[in-house]
Every structure is written in C-alpha cells, then in structure tokens.
Amino acid sequence: MRIRYRHSRLFSPALAALTMTLGAASTLWADDVMDEFLIRARQSRQEHRSATDEFIRSLDLTEAQARRLLTLLDEAAELHVEAYEAQAEIQPEISGAFQQFADEDSRNQGFSPEVERRTATLNHQAKEVREALVGELLELERLASEILSRPQLAYAKGFRPGRKHRPTADRRQAHAKTRGPKAGKRGGRRGARRGKEAGRAGSQSRLDRRLASAREELDAINRQIHPRLGSVGRYLLSPSAIDVMCSLTGSVPNENLRHARAVFENGTDDYPADMRDHHQAEITLLRAEINNWNLINGLHLSKEQIGRIVLLCEAFAVERDSVAQQRSSKRHSKRNRNRGKPPIVDLERAVEKVMNPGQQAVLADYKACLIPPKNLKDPVRVGQASDNSHLARLLTRARKMPSHRLQRVIAELLDREAEHFGQLSSDARAERADLLVATAREAAEMSDAEFEISKAEMAERIAPVDRPAELKKEISKLSRRKGKTGRVAQFMLKPLFIEQLRQRGRQLADGVVTERTDPASGPQAGNCEKGCALKPKGKKKVKKKVKTKP
After folding, report:
1. 353, exposed or middle or buried, with CB in 10 Å at 0-12, 13-18, 19+?
2. CB of 128 within 8 A of CB of 87?
3. Whose CA is closest to 380, among 109, 3, 116?
C-alpha cells in the first residue's frame, strides 16, 4: 500500500520541500501542506503581478508600442483561458490516475494494463496542453519582440524581478581594468600571496569553467527540447499585464480581457483557482512518489541496506537540527549561522558506501520518469532505462522497405530523436542518416537467422548519443570534485524518498515484497534485456550467459 499522506509525516511546509535536503524544514501533516501550498500559490500570483508591473513600466513603452502589444495580449489572453479550461477537465482525472499508479508501483509487482494506459494517456494529454500553450505564446512573443527597440530587448533579456540595476559583463570588465594598475602598484606581501593563491586556484578555475560550460550546453539542449518563454512572453503576454497595458493606452479592457483577468485571479465557477492549486499539489506529490518508487524498485536494496541508510539520515537530521537550535539561541549573523552544521556531502558519501557497485550503476544511469520502459522482461522497471528495441524493430521493417520509404522513415526517426536529445547540426544529422541507411542495407543482406542473432547488437550500434544524460553525469562528477553533492543527494536524500524507503523496509520485513538481490552482488542482471539500466556495467560474464542461453 502506498504512502497515505493524511497518516504520514512530511518534512516540509510546501511542495517546494520536495527539493530540500533532510533536516532543512519542519514536519507537517498533509492538510497543513495543502493549506501552505494554497497560500504560496496565491503569493506566487501576487509576485507575478508585481514583477509584470515592474517589467512593463521599466520598458518605458510608447503609446504606439503599447497599443500594438495590447492587440497581441488580447490573443494571448484567449489562449490562457482555453488552457485553463482544458486543465480543468484533465487535472482531477490525473490525480486519481496517479494515485492508482502509485499504489501498484509501491507493491513492486508490475502494473495492470488499464491503470498504466490511463495514466500514460492523461499525462500525455496534460503535456500536450502545456506544449500547445507555450507554442502559441512563443509565436506571439516573437511578434511582440519585433515591436520593442534594441535597448528594450536588452533590458528584457537581463530582467530579473527586483534587480533593476544588474551590472553587465562589459561593466564588470571595465571595472576590472580600472583596478588592475592600482593593484599592481601595491606589491609587497599581498602581491606575493596573490601569486601563490593564483597557482593553487588555477586548476579550480579550469574546473569551474568546465562545469559552467557543461551547464550552459545542457541548458541550451533543454531549451531545444522544452522551449521556454522569455521575459517578453512571461510578462507582456500574461493576464496580469492587462490592467497596466490598458492604463498605458488609456483604454478599458474588453470583455475577452476582463474574462481572462478573472480566470487568472480566481479561476472559473466550475473550477476555482483554489481547487486547481489543490489538484496541482496532489499531482506534484504523487509524481514525486512515483519517481521514488521507480528508483527504489530498481535499486533492490536489502533490508539491511535500507536500515543503514535510514539510520544515517535520521542521525544526520538530528545532528543538523541540534546545531541549528544551539546557534539560533545565540546571536549570529546569517553568514555564520550554518557553521558547524554537518555537510550533506558527508551523508552522501556514507550512503554511497552502503550501496554496492551494481546499485551505484543503476543510480548513475537513472533518469526520472513517470512510466518506465515496457520492454524489460522483469516487471519491475527503473526510470528511463536505455532502450534500443525501437531500433531493432526499425531494422526488421527496413529489410523489406523500398529506398524512398526508408529515407522518409529515417527522417521521421531523427525528428523524434531531436525531441528527446536536442537538434543535431546539419552535418551530424546527415552523418547519422547515412549510418542508419547503411545499417538497414546490411540487415537486408542477412538471412533471417543471421539477422535474429545480430539485430540487438546492430540496434545498440546505431543507438543515438544521449548528450543530455552525458552532460548530467559530467556535471555530477565535476560537482563532486568541487566538494558538492551528486546524484545520491539529488534523488535519494529527500524527505519523501526516505519515508518511502522506510515503508519498503516494512514491506520486506512483513514479506509483502520479496528481497530480490544479494547485498554483496548487486541487482540481478539476468532478469533484464540488453541495455536495461538494471544491468551492472562491466559484467561481461553475465552478458555471455544471457546470449548463449537456449
């Protein structure tokens, strides 16, 4: 049975706590969590209104610009209302579907087809609503950007609410140049000390540059996969901009704008904003719970491992709270308030030692997702494991496919891959298309028996490069070298995850869930197909055994 929030304790005053580490927030009952979420949702709308007002007034729009932008805002307002109405139809069903899915996920016995189908369908519908709204608004944002001047666009690009005077890179460089000669004249001990520090900091600065570069590349890919609105779309095309834009033009909002403003503020009669916020809270909590069960099921932690991890986290929380309480009783500046608290990195390293190499490999390859892949032989599936079965099916069809149709199918495949891994350059796309065509022709020349033996290896050979996953691993590795947290803290050292881990421990103790792994050997790779994230890396003997099995 899954965690019932009404009878379990959460470690946070709101949904934002799902991203917090242990001991960073107080425990509250689920009803208090929901109440806090509603309060924060209303505060968020108020903060958005304030930021919109600040953004528009700082742009210093002319009346002519404001009138043209108000026309686009009228179109955007209608889109926002349509999206809200679509959301009102889907969200209550999503909440119920997620609850059923989480119930089955918590029992680690696989998923019934109807529950899985319903969850996947509703989740896809909600995604389509979000993407349709963003797609339409991006086009309106493009038109709005053409109305603004270059200085206005530059301001919009660097806008952050509450930070009106943000220094540019040029100003920082100019500031550094003016300080350079003066610093050189000082000389003496300070200059010698700086020389030594520069030598020691050289490698650290290179590490920082590599980390920044990896994050920038990942952010660029994420923007390709999931396009996001800029400041122009977020503020100028928001219903919260209606009043200030009408005041700039000296006009009165029309019926469409008034309706959009009312929906933005209070929702509709059939689906008030508070009800929407409540469902969003439930969905966010359930999605986090499902992701946690997916990872817990895939790690196959033993009772002993679960007990040790829970004890480590509890001891960490007690120590951290104790230090915080001692320091809060004295007068300390914010800068010194966290001194003496146990670092989360130490807890992460202790938890890593509890996990065996196979489980660490599972975590390294784990990608959070709602519904794990369908092609694994084992009914328990972890995250978005590497799955090349669609490429094997493509090669099977391509053996009997005419050339012109093969080219079209490959072009469609590359478009789908771009949605998951980002766009390739024209040269890289052409090179990948040539590889796919050559492999398909190679498959066509094989006999049926030869192809059946070789198709899995061929599919792995033409698998696309998952650049976002590579960058995430690189960022995690570089962060660890800088003494920061990695994937254990990102996915496991969360209050909700630890609560679910306790429940899994009770399930194992009661025999509700059977223990599936030897703590010394890691997850059982023999139950997975090739490419499954459950298979430990470097286990070549196990791989051979699977291939030669009659």
Report:
1. exposed
2. no
3. 109
3-state secondary structure labels for all residues of 495-539: HHHHHHHHHHHHHHHHCCCCCCCECCCECCHHHCCCCCCCCCCCC
17-73 pLDDT tens trace: 333 333 333 334 456 666 777 788 888 888 999 999 999 999 999 999 999 999 999
Q: How far is residue 453 from each of residues 277, 283, 389, 464, measured CA to CA in Å?
A: 53, 44, 14, 21
CA 73 to chain centre: 30
Q: Please name every residue paired with 10 in a beta bridge, in sequence order, or none if there are none.
A: 28
Query: Residue ranges per domain, the chain?
Result: 29-162+229-299, 354-490+517-548
Find the largest Cα–Cα distance for the chain: 81
pTM: 0.74
Asked whether 91 and 126 are in contact (CB, 8 A), the reply is yes
Closest to 94 (Cα-Cα) out of 75, 72, 121? 121
pLDDT tens digit sequence for 344-380: 899 999 999 999 999 998 898 888 888 876 543 343 3
Look at the alpha carbons of 471, 477, 479, 481 in this order and tell me if their dihedral is positive or negative: negative
Cross-strand bridge partners of residue 272 = 267
Contact between 306 and 501 (Cβ < 8 Å): yes
Cα 242 from Cα 246, distance rounded (Å)? 6
Q: Take residue 232 and report the two structure tokens written for it.
A: 């122009």
CA 137 to chain centre: 22
Alpha-carbon span 387 to 373, nearest angstrom: 7
- How far apart are the two ends of the chain, measured CA to CA in Å? 38
Q: How far apart are CA 282 and CA 99, in angstroms?
A: 9
